[in-house]
Write a structure and sequence with these properties.
mainly alpha, 7 helices
Length: 166
């Protein structure tokens, strides 16, 4: 069991409390890969959404990717990452590179689910009302992963740790 020690009479700082929650609920319970998968999933989703909005608005350095005149949806590299990491998760030693594979899987899953509406309608509906289903799919998956995989106690203790410093 992990705990951060503090000197008597000293108040713990915010980052010590967050680290304590992380080690107690994530590291000690063997949930590091699930945690980093969720973090990479959420970060990738947010970044992809920001980039796609910038592309649509014509701002920033990003542009749509085309191969031979065909638009390459980010769903495609997402599927490739999911397939490769699925294979690696069964082919590598149980401890070697598991966190890296989990992060890459989360990245691939976010790229893929961000275009969930494309799977459902078999046409590009990203910027339409039907495209909202992709956001809904990401929210549902992230919520399930956040609650079920990480556990209610993790969130309870994390909110308590944050609350002590507000």
């Amino acid at each position: 069991m992990w705990t951060l020690a503090t000197a008597p009479g000293h108040r713990r700082n915010f980052w010590q409390d967050i680290a304590d929650v992380y080690y107690r609920h994530i590291v000690d319970e063997g949930k590091e890969q699930a945690f980093w998968l969720l973090v990479s999933f959420l970060a990738t989703f947010v970044i992809v959404r920001l980039i796609t909005h910038a592309i649509r608005a014509g701002r920033g350095p990003f542009r749509n990717v085309s191969v031979g005149g065909t638009h390459l949806h980010h769903l495609v590299p997402g599927i490739v990452l999911v397939l490769v990491t699925g294979y690696l998760s069964t082919a590598i030693h149980p401890r070697a590179g598991r966190t890296t594979v989990a992060i890459l899987f989360g990245l691939g899953a976010a790229l893929t689910l961000d275009e969930f509406a494309l799977w459902l309608h078999l046409k590009d509906v990203y910027w339409t009302k039907e495209g909202r289903r992709s956001v809904d799919a990401v929210i549902i998956c992230a919520t399930v992963a956040g609650l079920v995989v990480l556990g209610f106690r993790f969130w309870h203790d994390l909110f308590h740790a944050v609350g002590r410093h507000l």
